[in-house]
């Protein structure tokens, strides 16, 4: 809703104009303040401390995924019946912590090795104990004896803080489909781009 500002445009009301613009600036900056930490991720409403906690959560999750430790991977998810993981390969869509564990067990059967899993936060926002973010990822997988390098993955996460730990309540991992004149972001072989 746009406020009625017709009264502030009358002669002699410069004080009201200043108050109005100060109010509007305060509203805009409080709801849309953007900071940049580390790699330049756009961040609205999260402190640097929270950003670093969540970045560490993603880094530790990536390590658990590379190590293929299903129990460690699942420990990063909030243990609820509506926690959701949407992913590529064997993950598909899993709802509930037990289904997520089953999906990662199947994922570990299908993907014998993860050579690397690099994530970069692109944008992050927080409100209280909830945070949501988007990230890009590169991952090297060995599937059926063949190395696949995925260089254009996109991810979204919703996290909930419980105590001092941030846990996923929703994750999404997908690759970008190539346009009509583009190559796939997936390559075969041992290289890491």
The helix/strand class is alpha+beta
CATH topology: Nuclear Transport Factor 2, Chain: A
Low-pLDDT residue intervals, each spanning 5 or more residues: 1-40
* Euclidean distance between termini CA atoms: 47 Å
Give the tally of structural domains: 1
State the share of residues found in helices, binned by percent.
25-40%
Q: Give the SSE order as H and E letters.
A: HEEHHEEHEEEEE
Mean pLDDT equals 77
Please indicate the percent range of residues in DSSP E strands (runs of 2 or more).
Answer: 35-45%
Tell me which CATH architecture applies here.
Answer: Roll
Bulk shape? globular
Specify the number of helices.
4
Number of strands: 9
Under CATH at level 1, the class stands as Alpha Beta
The largest sheet, given as strand count, sense and whether it forms a barrel, is: 9 strands, mixed
- Cα gyration radius (Å): 22 Å
Could you describe the 3D structure shown?
The chain is α+β, with helices and mostly antiparallel strands. It has one domain: Nuclear Transport Factor 2, Chain: A. The protein is 30% helix and 39% strand. Strands 1, 2, 3, 4, 5, 6, 7, 8 and 9 form a 9-stranded mixed β-sheet that branches.
TL;DR of this structure?
Helix content is 30%, strand content 39%.
Question: How would you describe this structure in keywords?
Answer:
193 residues; alpha+beta; Nuclear Transport Factor 2, Chain: A; 4 helices; 9 strands
Topology (SSEs and partners):
Elements (H helix, E strand, L loop, with lengths): L13 H19 L1 E4 L3 E4 L3 H20 L2 H5 L9 E3 L6 E3 L1 H14 E17 L2 E14 L2 E17 L2 E11 L10 E3 L5
